[in-house]
Design a protein that fits this description.
The complex is a heterodimer. By secondary structure, chain A is mainly alpha-helical. Chain A is 76% helix and 2% strand. Chain A is globular and about 60 Å long. Chain A starts with a helix and ends in a 6-residue tail after the last helix. A six-stranded mixed sheet of chain B has the order 6-7-8-3-9-10, sandwiched between helices. Classes of the chains: A mainly alpha, B alpha/beta.
Chain lengths: 251, 300
């Protein structure tokens, strides 16, 4: 247990020591998205009939920050330790694969939540949020962070080079998060793209999270919770299996 | 009492390369044991298998009686490994690094022992320095410290002095000797055979994944009978054919001649004198580990 606690704290300390880069920078990026999109679309787009565009956008940006930073935390930590060889310090001690998984995913979730709270704090000035169902906000933030943290562990284990990880981030994570309804309601899409969006698990994370703020969503939050929970179980299972097998960690 | 390390019929193949081909080895508690072999002999693979970094295809490895696979927690708590590569986590200071490493092994409130290790490794002044700012030699010392934070009874040093200056090397060996005297079992791999000869009580030599020699250092040295007579001739002097045939010319031009019995020294010198080859300098040397190593590797 002490091994898990230490690894978890080490992972927190790792991102906190460079918080300008790991927290402040993504908060600023989200703020820029908000300024640009709200300036261009605020008076042109109305979502769910009466919801101002900026109010619609903020929860999506917060959740996108949670997801992207949770992924970045576990994946970058692992690839960096693999490339530099310092992963050996985690592999030599008596830390079980379950402790390894829990520490990396939990730390990734915390980083996602810290950045998400930062984004929420700076965007509060631009939109009035209702917090219609706060428990959904917490549930989807935690589940989303854990899913992307777990995906980050998989990507970090799989990648041998920074290039491969950047490819995973740019060609998998970015499209999934950008095309998930952060910037639009999928009801505004043509039927084909609407249908396709339902195959994107990130869509359910964003939609359920947004429901917690505004009480409206593209699909019922219960359905989103079921899809997101199933994704977490599947990915956690895959990650644990990879760690147990020692894939790319123990020869 | 269980030995410090017991390895039974361990095999490991990487693709077409048989890295370990049925290794059997026991290291008793309190031994200072040397594991020697050319690059690619399988030394690091064997150490990695012991540390759980490599999973063998077959066989069993134990540390202080604990199976490194089935009872990995107990086994790893009893093993400290100094890796060959100079690796470090650039986010942390020396003290943070050692506290974190202690925590991984479940050791809390370890600052007294950390201070002691820092003192012995001459790192006290660098305790709060970030790892990135340390010289290569200091990073190497931190690696040693990391392997010791949980007070393991068995310590494996995988080429710890590669690329390390003489002063640090001597300091490091002094410290490791003290640990050994204190009851720790030490397993050392090194390319510096002189170090192994001076430090290790018993030595295993590996080649192509197999142990090709295993004996006390004394017995290994004794296995090579005779001495080497090194003769430097005066400039322009050429050795007679009888001497040239039984000698090896070393890099500095010295002739190294194997001598079976001491009486042969006089025979060699007389032959040179009669041929008019003036001797400028001579030395009679006992066989060293390097000669034994070269002989055994050549034989296998």
């Amino acid at each position: 247990m002490q091994g898990f606690v230490t690894l978890f704290r080490k992972e927190l300390l790792r991102f906190w020591k460079v918080s300008f880069q790991t927290v402040a920078a993504p908060v600023l990026t989200s703020l820029l998205y908000l300024l640009v999109f709200s300036h261009v679309l605020e008076n042109r787009v109305r979502v769910y009939d009466a919801l101002p565009y900026t109010a619609f956008l903020v929860p999506g940006l917060v959740m996108m920050a949670v997801l992207q930073n949770a992924f970045a935390n576990s994946s970058s930590s692992l690839i960096q330790s693999k490339v530099t060889g310092s992963i050996v310090f985690v592999l030599l001690p008596p830390i079980s694969y379950r402790e390894f998984f829990a520490a990396y995913v939990l730390a990734a979730t915390v980083r996602g939540l810290v950045v998400g709270l930062g984004v929420l704090a700076v965007t509060l000035w631009f939109a009035e949020l209702r917090y219609a169902a706060p428990h959904w906000i917490v549930v989807f933030a935690l589940l989303g962070g854990a899913i992307l943290g777990s995906l980050g562990v998989i990507a970090g284990i799989w990648a041998d080079k920074f290039d491969q990880l950047a490819g995973f981030q740019n060609f998998v994570i970015m499209p999934l998060t950008f095309l998930s309804g952060v910037f639009y309601s999928i009801h505004s899409l043509p039927p084909f793209w609407q249908g396709l969006s339902h195959f994107n698990p990130v869509f359910y994370m964003i939609d359920g999270f947004r429901y917690g703020f505004h009480g409206v969503s593209d699909v019922p939050p219960g359905l989103s919770l079921a899809v997101v929970s199933a994704c977490l179980l599947g990915l956690a299972g895959l990650t644990l299996w990879l760690l147990k097998s020692g894939y790319k960690l123990r020869a | 009492m269980e030995p410090a390390i017991r390895i039974r019929q361990v095999t490991k193949r990487f693709g077409s390369v048989q890295a370990l081909a049925g290794i059997d080895l026991s290291v008793e508690r309190g031994e200072f044991f040397g594991l020697l072999g050319p690059n690619g002999a399988g030394k690091t693979t064997l150490i990695s298998a012991l540390a759980g970094l490599v999973r063998p295809d077959a066989g069993r490895l134990e540390v202080m009686g604990w199976d490194v696979a089935a009872q990995y927690r107990e086994a790893r708590r009893r093993l400290g490994v100094v890796p060959q590569e100079l690796v470090f986590d650039p986010f942390f200071t020396v003290r943070e690094t050692l506290r974190i490493q202690s925590g991984y092994y479940g050791v809390r409130g370890n600052d007294d022992w950390i201070d002691e290790i820092l003192h012995h490794l001459d790192l006290t002044a660098k305790a709060d320095t970030n790892m990135r700012r340390l010289s290569g030699g200091m990073k190497r010392r931190v690696l040693v410290a990391q392997a010791l934070v949980h007070r393991p009874p068995v310590i494996v040093l995988d080429e710890p002095t590669a690329g390390v200056d003489v002063e640090l090397r001597q300091g490091l060996w002094q410290f490791v000797r003290r640990l050994n005297r204190g009851g720790h079992t030490i397993v050392l791999t090194t390319h510096y055979l002189e170090e192994a000869e001076n430090l290790c009580g018993r030595i295993a030599m590996m080649k192509q994944g197999r142990i090709v020699a295993l004996d006390s250092t004394e017995n290994l040295l004794r296995s090579l009978s005779g001495h080497t007579l090194r003769v430097r001739l005066a400039p322009g002097a050429a050795p007679p054919a009888a001497i040239a045939e039984r000698s090896v010319r070393e890099d500095d031009g010295t002739l190294a001649c194997r001598i079976g019995r001491c009486e042969e020294v006089e025979t060699v010198l007389r032959t040179l004198r009669e041929a008019g080859a003036e001797v400028e300098d001579l030395e009679l040397a006992k066989p060293d580990l390097e000669e034994v190593f070269v002989r055994i590797m050549g034989r296998n």
